[in-house]
Write a structure and sequence with these properties.
Length: 227
């Protein structure tokens, strides 16, 4: 029996992206199931999977249930210590765990004002002071990690830290938020990673538009891509 992962729509569900990126880049086998957020059957589908109201959720090979992205990441890092989900260096590992937890519980202004949408970008967004404060803190975290590791990802190779910050990268790009040169290079590395490209491409094919994620006061522009 392998792992089973329940996700929402790939174009919109930032937490589902984090959950999936905890498996795919590390070649951990998983069977993926989908539930449609904002559909009439969503909560019933989540309950049928064995979880409670939210995605992502993971059913482990021995029948355990993980119903939060942070628990998914910590479980997989413990279950697969040789897969590199966290940095091997103890200092970098502690820092990575800390910034993952900060992302999980923080940056509420950015997350509230800038929903993830991998189908489009937006022109004319005017960030509040709270959003800009979140962006400045994110820049500080990423710059510190990249200066120490040399990149291209936060701790050199792709880790759970990158999985958790992937939807943050897309928010900076799609809402035209300020980025230093270091952060811009990181955004390029992350959004051209094969796992991210696969996720976004599948979402463009599979997902229907969801009005809840629309920004009616902003103009749509193409999703930013890097060659």
């Amino acid at each position: 029996m392998t792992y089973s992962l329940l996700i929402g729509q790939k174009s919109y569900s930032s937490w589902s992206l984090r959950g999936w990126l905890s498996f795919a880049p590390f070649d951990i086998p998983v069977t993926v199931h989908s539930a449609v957020i904002y559909s009439d059957t969503f909560y019933d589908d989540v309950a049928a999977f064995g979880a409670h109201r939210t995605v992502p959720a993971v059913r482990t090979p021995d029948g355990g249930m993980l119903t939060d992205s942070l628990s998914i990441g910590w479980h997989l890092a413990e279950a697969f210590p040789d897969k590199g989900l966290l940095p091997s260096d103890p200092v970098a590992r502690a820092e990575a765990q800390s910034v993952i937890a900060e992302m999980h519980s923080g940056f509420t202004a950015l997350r509230g004002a800038c929903p993830m949408n991998l189908r489009t970008a937006w022109a004319g967004f005017e960030p509040s002071a709270d959003v800009l404060a979140d962006v400045a803190r994110i820049d500080e975290i990423w710059t510190r990690a990249l200066d120490h590791s040399g990149g291209p990802f936060l701790y050199g190779a792709f880790t759970l830290a990158d999985a958790f910050y992937a939807p943050v990268v897309t928010r900076l790009l799609t809402y035209g938020l300020p980025m230093s040169d270091t952060v811009h290079r990181y955004a390029q590395a992350l959004t051209t990673h094969p796992a991210f490209l696969s996720w976004r491409t599948e979402g463009l094919t599979e997902d229907a538009e969801v009005d809840v994620y629309d920004m009616p006061k902003l103009d749509r522009i193409p999703f930013p891509t890097f060659s």
